[in-house]
């Protein structure tokens, strides 16, 4: 479904290009949960932004990113707008980077639906309340009318997840979605993502710097180090028999 082929990403500064992702290749299949793990600065977010067409103007992407045979490195921003939030969605570490503080939670999710589907505002509102129930927000109808600052961090992340799955995407990219949350809420969100994956059959790219989360959610994993993929495979295999020194150190550093 998604095939990242020999992708390198560099940023221009002072006439020089600084390569931050170096010739990476991987596949994301149907219904798969792929974990991408690596320390801060290893190129995880830049890779996901490239898939979403959200890199800044000074970025240069080489290689190919095929999504259902469309090369995402070749399409216009206008074409991306039809895909983003619709066929490929994302959630980030900080929900407020995507939620508008001056609009109600429900309104923001309904706008996404109305942007991509030809349905009435009333029908969209009904769908949003169903989505809020699906992501296990308490008092879904009340939260519809609340502003982001009126709900907790975990609830905001649930609103973000509702927004991300609103249009039934084929791929959800979750970039450190639980890093800003405390441990119990983190576990709940992981469980929710697993349940939603089972139910909707979407594929998920779950990005984290925390290897232990990968074993909880992912089927396959790739390990990034300084812009390169140093290891990839089935989660059990990589955990049992890591071939790379960095991966070994990562696994051994866990209690
Ligand atoms: P992480 O694995 O922590 O998500 P990132 O993908 O955010 O790492 O960053 C990888 C590298 O790319 C870092 O060295 C970062 O400083 C650099 N980088 C990210 N965005 C930009 C940008 N817009 N311009 C220049 N360098 C960037
Ligand atoms: Mg990041």
From TrEMBL:
<protein>
    <submittedName>
        <fullName>Peptide/nickel transport system ATP-binding protein</fullName>
    </submittedName>
</protein>
<comment type="similarity">
    <text>Belongs to the ABC transporter superfamily.</text>
</comment>
<feature type="domain" description="ABC transporter">
    <location>
        <begin position="4"/>
        <end position="251"/>
    </location>
</feature>
């Amino acid at each position: 479904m998604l095939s990242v082929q020999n992708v390198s990403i560099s940023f221009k500064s002072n006439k020089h290009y600084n390569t931050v992702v170096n010739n990476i290749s991987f596949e994301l299949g149907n219904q798969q949960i792929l974990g991408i793990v690596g320390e801060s600065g290893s190129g995880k977010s830049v890779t996901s932004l490239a898939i979403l067409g959200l890199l800044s103007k000074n970025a240069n992407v080489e290689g190919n990113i095929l999504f259902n045979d469309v090369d995402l490195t070749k399409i216009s921003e206008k074409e991306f707008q039809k895909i983003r939030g619709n066929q490929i969605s994302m959630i980030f570490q900080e929900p407020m980077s995507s939620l508008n503080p001056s609009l109600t939670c429900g309104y923001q999710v309904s706008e996404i639906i109305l942007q991509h589907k030809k349905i009435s505002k009333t029908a969209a509102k009904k769908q949003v309340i169903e989505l809020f129930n699906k992501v296990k927000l308490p008092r879904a109808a009340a939260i519809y009318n609340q502003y982001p600052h009126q709900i907790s961090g975990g609830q905001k992340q649930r609103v973000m997840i509702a927004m991300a799955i609103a249009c039934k995407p084929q791929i959800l990219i979750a970039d450190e979605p639980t890093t800003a949350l405390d441990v119990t809420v983190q576990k709940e969100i992981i469980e929710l993502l697993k349940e939603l994956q089972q139910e909707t059959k979407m594929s998920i790219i779950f990005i984290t710097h925390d290897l232990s989360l990968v074993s909880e959610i992912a089927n396959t994993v790739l390990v990034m180090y300084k812009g390169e993929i140093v290891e990839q495979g089935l989660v059990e295999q990589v955990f049992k028999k890591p071939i790379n020194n960095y991966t070994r150190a990562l696994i051994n550093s866990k209690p």
